[in-house]
């Protein structure tokens, strides 16, 4: 189901909780909502659509990738950038890392550890910040 984008800063500033198998229906809502906003959005965290659960989705260019309970375990090559967000007007300066390693579960609740770089790494970092209640 396509969900409205949450713009309530108080809600977005709260940390999300560990997601379980019972939270898998949220994935479909994230997929539907990202698809509906694709022309202006490259990733979403569950709290952006009203769920305080550790689930994100990113548009990789080839397909959308869901990460459940993502944790960035390593990062290197910091750089300054500016980002926008569907939940907030305008853009803001932030520091991101060009290379990251992420431990996460997929939609089948299978754990993975994977390296990412460049723009995909930036999107993941932005969405993981959302899960931590950090708004740029």
Residues in β-strands, percent: 35-45%
First and last CA, distance: 27 Å
Helix content range of the residues, please?
10-25%
Structural shape: globular
Uncertain segments of ≥5 residues (pLDDT<50)?
Answer: none
Number of helices: 3
Number of domains: 1
- Structural class designation: alpha+beta
Q: What is the typical, i.e. mean, pLDDT?
A: 96
Give the C-level CATH assignment: Alpha Beta
Oligomer status: single chain
CATH topology: Peptide Deformylase
What does this structure look like?
- The protein has three helices and five strands, in the order ααβββββα.
- The longest helix has 14 residues, at 118-131.
- The chain has helices spanning 9-12, 25-36, 118-131, and strands spanning 43-45, 55-59, 64-85, 88-105, 111-117.
- It has one domain (9-131): Peptide deformylase (Peptide Deformylase).
- Helix content is 22%, strand content 40%.
- The radius of gyration is 14 Å and the shape is globular.
- With 136 residues, the chain is of the alpha+beta class.
- A hairpin with a 4-residue loop joins strand 2 and strand 3 (64-85).
- The relative contact order is 0.21.
- The mean pLDDT is 96.
Give a short synopsis of this structure.
The protein is of the alpha+beta class. It has helices at residues 9-12, 25-36, 118-131, and strands at 43-45, 55-59, 64-85, 88-105, 111-117.
């Amino acid at each position: 189901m396509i969900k409205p984008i949450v713009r309530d800063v108080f809600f977005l500033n709260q940390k999300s909780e560990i997601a379980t198998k019972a939270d898998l229906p949220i994935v479909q809502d994230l997929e539907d909502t990202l698809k509906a906003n694709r022309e202006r959005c490259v990733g979403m965290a569950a709290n952006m659509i009203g769920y305080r659960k550790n689930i994100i989705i990113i548009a990789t260019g080839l397909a959308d990738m869901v990460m459940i309970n993502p944790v960035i375990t390593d990062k290197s090559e910091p750089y300054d950038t500016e980002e926008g967000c569907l939940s907030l007007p305008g853009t803001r300066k932030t520091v991101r890392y060009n290379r990251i390693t992420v431990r996460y579960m997929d939609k089948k609740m299978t754990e993975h550890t994977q390296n990412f770089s460049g723009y995909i790494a930036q999107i993941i970092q932005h969405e993981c910040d959302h899960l931590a209640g950090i708004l740029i």
